[in-house]
């Protein structure tokens, strides 16, 4: 089975210069070069093939692009699993797109090629042409990097990691472990910035990131970081953080503990120096997100989702003073009328209105995990409303969802339960109107992870 999969990869690269057919009701012709050049906005769909279990996405990632016009057309049908371009990655690829949708950026995740950066010009169908040179960021952040494209005109990417080590005082009696005293957990973060245009390393820094002395004495430490976000002034970088805890008396992992206020690491930019940690008094839980961008700059401030909050996920606000604005209270449990709201992925348009994927305590358990939903969010009004015009069922799994495509005030998303066909949907964030678009043809155990 492995040999067949690698043969498929080889075949895909050999055919990657070809544009395959988008099946339409009235035309099955391959687009000409003139037609390709007339497309104002490509929408790229990513499909994650099953590895060993339905919905795990570990069988590789395929991408397929179509025009925004075709993406809105329910008579169009695409088959990315059969006709898509295979993105180099041992597991689910970590993808980013240029703001105009005409370039796809990828850093391979895990395996022999893990940490390799590459970019592709989008030409429609499975026609993605690699441009520029590749570069590996593995020497800086490992072969399974957590990375993001900064919103600076598609110039810069940033990848991060954190390593942890428990510090123990043996009280001068190394042969008697009962006298060992837990001191703290050292968390060392690394961050590298990448020139996306010239495929080169811009900067790399490592720092020890410490919590307060009281928090560390109680066993808390930063265990994961992700989703660097540039502030409006362009002089600070915010990095989301997850906290974990050990029992100081045993140094065993503690799973039942008080959830502290949400925290973010703030660095000077572009120097990546002077790390500081800021804490929210409104939200509790983690801010690192998972597979999708978790924080966005809008109207001078940065808005950030948190996860694992005992009161349900919040949208938090970091002001121009680079501190949390605790006067901004946006609780999704209250707005959506649920308990245990958990933000899976979200993205605002330029008007401050966003589409947000979430689950909650009442979500049904499907074949791959808890069912997900979409909501329309207004950052200024602090409102969130479930989008009713998108069909839902228990196997609609959004935990690995990565991205939405934004075109003006419209946001494109994918809806397809694990192993079942679905559609592209387009949300007009100004009016809330929802358009059912092109059909997404699925295969057994697999799912779609977003639009770019």
TrEMBL record:
<keyword id="KW-0732">Signal</keyword>
<protein>
    <recommendedName>
        <fullName>Lipoprotein</fullName>
    </recommendedName>
</protein>
<feature type="signal peptide">
    <location>
        <begin position="1"/>
        <end position="25"/>
    </location>
</feature>
């Amino acid at each position: 089975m492995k040999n067949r999969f690698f043969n498929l990869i080889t075949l895909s690269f050999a055919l990657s210069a070809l544009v395959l057919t988008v099946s339409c009701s009235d035309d099955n012709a391959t687009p000409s070069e003139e037609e390709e050049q007339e497309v104002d906005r490509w929408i790229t769909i990513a499909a994650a093939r099953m590895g060993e279990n339905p919905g795990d996405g570990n069988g590789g990632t395929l991408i397929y692009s179509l025009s925004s016009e075709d993406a809105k057309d329910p008579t169009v049908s695409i088959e990315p699993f059969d006709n898509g371009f295979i993105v180099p990655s041992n597991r689910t690829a970590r993808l980013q797109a240029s703001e105009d949708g005409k370039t796809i950026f990828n850093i391979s995740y895990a395996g022999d090629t893990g940490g390799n950066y590459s970019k592709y010009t989008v030409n429609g169908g499975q026609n993605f042409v690699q441009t520029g040179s590749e570069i590996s960021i593995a020497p800086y952040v490992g072969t399974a990097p957590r990375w993001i494209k900064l919103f600076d005109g598609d110039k810069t990417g940033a990848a991060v990691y954190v390593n942890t080590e428990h510090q123990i005082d043996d009280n001068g009696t190394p042969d008697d472990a009962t006298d060992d005293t837990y001191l703290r957990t050292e968390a060392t973060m690394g961050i590298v910035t990448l020139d996306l245009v010239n495929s080169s390393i811009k900067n790399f820094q490592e720092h020890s990131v410490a919590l307060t002395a009281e928090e560390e004495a109680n066993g808390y430490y930063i265990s994961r970081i992700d989703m660097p976000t540039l502030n409006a002034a362009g002089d600070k970088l915010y990095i989301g953080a997850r906290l974990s805890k050990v029992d100081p008396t045993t140094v065993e992992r503690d799973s039942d503990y008080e959830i502290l206020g949400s925290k973010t690491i703030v660095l000077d930019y572009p120097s990546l120096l002077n790390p500081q940690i800021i804490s929210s008094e409104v939200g509790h839980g983690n801010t690192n997100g998972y597979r999708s961008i978790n924080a966005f700059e809008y109207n001078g401030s940065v808005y950030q989702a948190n996860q694992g909050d005992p009161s349900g996920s919040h949208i938090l606000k970091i002001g121009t003073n680079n501190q949390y604005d605790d006067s901004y209270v946006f609780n999704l449990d209250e707005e959506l009328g649920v308990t245990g709201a958990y933000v899976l992925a979200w993205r605002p348009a330029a008007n401050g209105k966003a589409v947000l994927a979430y689950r909650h305590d009442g979500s049904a358990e499907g074949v791959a995990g808890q069912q997900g939903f979409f909501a329309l969010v207004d950052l200024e009004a602090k409102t969130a409303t479930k989008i009713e015009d998108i069909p839902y069922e228990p196997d609609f799994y959004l935990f690995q969802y990565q991205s939405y495509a934004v075109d003006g005030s419209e946001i494109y998303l994918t809806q397809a339960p694990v192993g079942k066909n679905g559609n592209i949907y387009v949300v007009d964030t100004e009016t809330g109107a929802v358009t059912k678009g092109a059909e997404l043809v699925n295969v057994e155990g697999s799912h779609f992870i977003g639009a770019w």
